[in-house]
Amino acid sequence: MGVDYEKGDGVDQDDKQAFHYFRQACDLGLPDGCLRTGFFYETGAGMAHKDQKQAAVLYRLACAAGNANACYSVAVLLHQGNGIPKDDGEAAIFFEKACSLHFDTACGVIR
Question: 17, 58, 59, 80 — which has fewest CB within 10 A?
Answer without folding.
Answer: 80
